[in-house]
Amino acid sequence: MSKFLKRMFLFLGMLCFSIHGNAYHIVGGEIFYECLGVDPDNPDAKLYRFILKIYRDCAGNGQDFDSLPGTAIGTVTIYQGDNVVPFIYSLHLDAPSITWLEADAGNPCLIVPPNICVQEGIYEFEQSLPNSNDSYHITYQRCCRNSSISNIYSPDETGATYTVELTPEAQAECNSSPVFANFPPILICVDEELNFDHSATDEEGDQLVYEFCSPLKGGGLYGNVTSPNGIYPDPDAPPPYDGVDFIVPTYSALTPLAGNPVVSIDPFTGVLSGIAETQGQFVVGICVKEYRNGVLLSTVQRDFQFNVTYCEPTVIAQLEGDEENGVYIYESCEDATFTFENSSFQSQFIDEYSWHFDVNGEDWIFSDSEPTVTFPEPGTYEGIMVLNPATQCSDTAHVSVRVAAPIYSDFEFYYDTCVAGAVSYTNLASSGNGSIIDYQWDFDDGSFTDESDPVYEFEDPGLYNVSLEVTDEWGCKDTFEQVVNWFPAPPIIVVEPSTFVGCPPASVEFVNLSSPIDNTYDIVWNFGDGNLGNEISPTHIYERPGTFDVGIQITSPIGCFIERRFENWIFIDSLPIAAFDYAPLVRSNFEPEVNFSDQSIRAAFWEWEFDRFGETIEQHPTYVFPDTGMMEVQLVVTHIYGCQDSITQIVDIEPQVTYWLPNAFTPNGDGKNEEYRGGGFFRGIKDFDIQIFNRYGGLVFQSADPSEAWNGQKNNTGRMSPNGVYLVRVQFTGPRGEAQEYKGFATLMR
Fold first, then answer.
1. Bridge pairing between strands 322-324 and 75-80
2. 3-state helix vs strand vs coil in the chain, percent to 5
3. Closest alpha carbon to 621 in 612, 629, 633
4. What's residue 33's pLDDT?
5. pLDDT of amino acid 23
């Protein structure tokens, strides 16, 4: 268990022993007797002095000793023989003499926790008892035990009986019982070896035998008591008395403290020994039997509550550092000088520090609390720090100092400077402490490896700070770094596209896929048309037709050079020439069909657009125009490589009109030829005017609507004009603004 945990348990132990219940502070007792001889007042009786010792836990405000002012009157009841009812004597006790007992851990180098307090109250009384062939039982009872007891069931409901038997053999011999020589240990320290002399003395020199025995139930809550009853029985209950109920199987009357080795008592010496492992409060019964010539004369029983807790040593050797299996480990990979930081305690009990280091067979000694020691060379040095050497209260800390030998990280590398490829690394690391157990390479591009001798190829050219960190068996580390100047020329020049065919102006993007290259490389392009470039992936425009060779030269920052020429790589063909004819050249609304004939050069595809009316991809189309006018006809031709040319011509579809005048009409109501109007095709005319005159020059009909007819009436008055010949004149403007005039004669007949 660590020293820190021990201190924590000590604190908890002190807390545990400071919170007893208020009513239950009687923690043990015993009765023994002395035969004073024949009673002067009764030759058939002997006078006895009885001594009752009661032990009280005085920490807190619990129950005080009986018979003190303000307390109950304690009683002792004496029973005779097997027929123990009724009792023969019931004695009221006077106030006890009280002694404060010191807690003793049994080891001067252990600090007894505070709040552990025990008082001894001694009651003495004398009683004359007639010689009898029956035993006398002298009994004192009390309720109850502390509720914090760990090894019995329901301790706060279990009373205690302190009794001694005065046997007929003891009466006949005027025997005095054995008396325990030492007060029982108030405190037993957890995990500390117990060695306590619990022996008794006997003035007659009788044989004494020791054993653990069961403490006895009693008091007002004792199950066999029928009357009287109460916490302070008066009279006390008669024998026989039952033992307390131990929590089995861990505890029993013979193993009340358990432990490892189990706490036991030597039957011949009365020495208690063993190691208690569990903190708590435990009820223990110890009996000493007195034999004379093989005959049992008496048994004295001590019933006591043992306190088992963690005890703090007066001094604890402790250092600041890593601890392995009880040894403080100090290591250094760079410095052989160590300052040992001391955290030992308790400082008030430390009188001397003694440091010893075995340095190559010599004993280096230091007396400082925190010495600074420089060791001569790499190696492992064992040492100790002793607090209060050559005294009983001493403690020792073991130290192991490991001074590492130098460790060196180093490496070399090889690669072909101008040919792109992997770099081979060879580690040259060494350590005087043993093997190198870990290699950590950092290639300065986000890549790492733990190989001993890696082979690695960079993706991009550059200056790389490559580092190697090595670790040896002692955990010592070292790092070495070198610059790898990796600027090789590409092993091959790769450019897309691998060929190009087009028409001027042809924009060609040369994608340079060569690797490794970057902007630090000197790149010269020869595009074959007299122009140069220096970008990694340039775009160049070819303005004229032709077949061109392309060349590229690449020079790395350290002078590595590669070049390549691509012959006949770029072919720029001549542009197509768009041209067409059409026939007939003159078309009208009466003949709107036009035949087109492609006359283009180097054309592979044709796109015709006939003004806003239609389109076609035929090479020699025929088109019928749906309207008249100046029609814009465009031809776009496309080269087989995608180049284009276009031409636009105007085709005139003339809007033509026809007009004629009839020479007679017969408005006689027979439904035939009843009206007079002009005929023909005259869409698009404007400013139309028709006038009809009689032979006297009088106007008989006029209209601006070419579709309106003369019905033979005079100006639509309802009066019919006479038969005869009338003069007709028509004027209008043609579709393209030309003036038109027609004259004729109209004969009216009925």
1. unpaired
2. 5, 50, 50
3. 633
4. 97
5. 39
The first and second tokens of residue 563, run together, are: 């070049």
Cβ proximity of 512 and 524 under 8 Å: no
Residues of 352-373 as b/e, b for ≥16 C-beta within 10 angstroms? ebbbbbebeeeeeebeebebeb
Helix (H, G, I), strand (E, B) or coil at 392: coil
Domains of the chain, with CATH numbers?
Answer: 3-312 (no CATH), 314-403 (2.60.40.10), 407-486 (2.60.40.10), 495-571 (2.60.40.10), 580-654 (2.60.40.10), 664-748 (2.60.40)
| Radius of gyration over every alpha carbon of the chain, rounded to an integer in angstroms | 67
3-state secondary structure of 4: helix
- The full length of the chain comes to 750
Yes or no: say if 213 and 287 are a contact pair by the CB < 8 Å rule: yes
Q: Which residues pair with 732 in a beta bridge?
A: 740
Determine contact, residues 657/689, Cβ cutoff 8 Å: no
| Nearest alpha carbon to residue 635 among 613, 588, 594, 603 | 603
What pLDDT sits at residue 471?
Answer: 96
- Residue 376's pLDDT is 94
CA–CA separation, 536 and 520 (whole Å): 10
Low-confidence ranges of the chain (pLDDT < 70): 1-24, 60-61, 83-85, 104-107, 220-230
To 10 degrees, the CA torsion angle through 77, 81, 84, 86?
Answer: -80
**Alpha-carbon separation of residue 432 from 379, 401, 438, 554 (angstroms):** 10, 16, 15, 49
The answer to whether 177 touches 248, Cβ cutoff 8 Å, is no
DSSP secondary structure letters along 585-607: S-EETTB-EEEEEE--BS-SEEE
Distance, in Å, from the CA atom of 496 to the CA atom of 508, rounded to the nearest integer, reads 10
Is the distance from CB of 649 to CB of 633 less than 8 angstroms? yes
Torsion of CA 258, 259, 264, 270, to 10 degrees: -120
Contact 216, 241 (CB under 8 A): yes
Peptide bond before 497: cis, by omega within 30 degrees of 0? yes
pTM: 0.51
Q: Residue with structure tokens 């425009």?
A: 541
260, two tokens: 């490892």
